[in-house]
Amino acid sequence: xxxxxAVLVVSLMLGTTMAAVTNMRVVTYNLxxxxxxxxxxxxxxxxxxxxxxxxxxxxxxxxxxxWSTRRIRIAHDLLSAGIDIAxxxxxxVRQVNDLAELFGSDWDWYGLGRDDxxxxxxxxxxxxxxxxxxxxxxxTFWLSDDPFNPSKYPEAGSLRLCTAMRFAHVASGKYxxxxxxxxxxQSDQQRRxxxxxxxxxxxxxxxxxxxxxxIGDFNSPPNGRDSGAYSIIxxxxxxxxxxxxxxxxxxxxxxxxxDFHMIDLRTATLRQNVSGNYATFTxxxxxxxxxxxxxxxxxxxxxxxxxxxxxxxxxTALSDDGIxxxxxxxxxxxxxx
Length: 337
Ligand SMILES: *[C@@H]1O[C@H](CO)[C@@H](O)[C@H](O)[C@H]1NC(C)=O
Ligand SMILES: *[C@@H]1O[C@H](CO)[C@@H](O)[C@H](O)[C@H]1NC(C)=O
Ligand SMILES: *[C@@H]1O[C@H](CO)[C@@H](O)[C@H](O)[C@H]1NC(C)=O
Description:
Blueprint: H1 2-21, E1 24-30, H2 42-47, H3 67-80, E2 85-89, H4 93-103, E3 107-110, E4 126-129, E5 133-142, E6 161-169, E7 175-182, H5 188-208, E8 211-217, H6 228-233, H7 244-250, E9 262-264, E10 274-276, E11 297-302, E12 308-314, E13 331-336
Parallel strand pairs: 1-2, 7-8, 10-12
Antiparallel strand pairs: 1-13, 2-4, 3-4, 5-6, 6-7, 8-11, 9-11, 12-13
Helix pairs in contact: 3-4
Bound molecules: 2-acetamido-2-deoxy-beta-D-glucopyranose (3 copies).
One 2-acetamido-2-deoxy-beta-D-glucopyranose is lined by residues 145-149, 243, 245.
């Protein structure tokens, strides 16, 4: 009797503790590629920071500033927000290296350059805290008709890839998979193919691992003419056919997890816990110039669940002096698995 009670008490306590300790803050942030390289080191930036007691000229700047100016604001914002996982997009290798330096030795990351599968072109890297998550496996595939080689969908503006990582949560031992993506800006056909591949891969992860998230910049809104990717990933319209080699590996039998699709965390979070802004892309325009503003950056979780979203926050990239850290805003979610 005592033994049974003790076991019950212990498992109840473990249940509560585990729900608390698996809480992780994840962010997706399109960093804007370093279009104005100036060769300044992170140390140069530290050395040129203004006197913290001097009042800035409010909203004095309106255009894009070099990465060397933006990077420290990005690191400050994300680290002070207490993130555990960051899914970045549009980062050139020098930006990835700068962030690794700014984040420090508590962090590790994985990603490949999209143009050659090594270091050329933009990365969609995943950064994670080593004390929170342990890497189980990782890989990259291209969102094209030739997914296992660096390749471009015919009508797309650029090569596009997905960074996939499977993690074990260190404290609880629970698994989760993250697929970090940056879909094409020009071709809705590419985006529909990409969403179909992501849905197939996510279902494979849901069936084999459990909690699965698709995170990133869809370069397209949830509604209207260009919403093919959102519509497919959320199960509103059927997927399009994908490369057969890819399907041979990842397609799960249709009787398993029927109606698998991804849920937009903005709708899967208690309404009063959805905070901050709506638009995730603002451009580098003046604060009152909203004509390009759109919601195109998303965090989705699989409808097999195994996860819970406590909070969903769209932050800001704007500082008092008018400098925008990026033309996108950071999108955060507090998830537990
Ligand atoms: C940056 O460094 C490269 C290679 O050393 C050099 O060619 C380039 O002119 C430098 N750019 C600036 C803005 O100093
Ligand atoms: C499918 O993808 C594989 C691996 O990337 C590639 O070798 C093959 O040619 C692709 N098939 C077609 C029809 O494009
Ligand atoms: C809402 O957010 C608060 C603060 O993070 C959290 O404690 C609470 O559990 C959340 N509520 C729900 C229903 O997720």
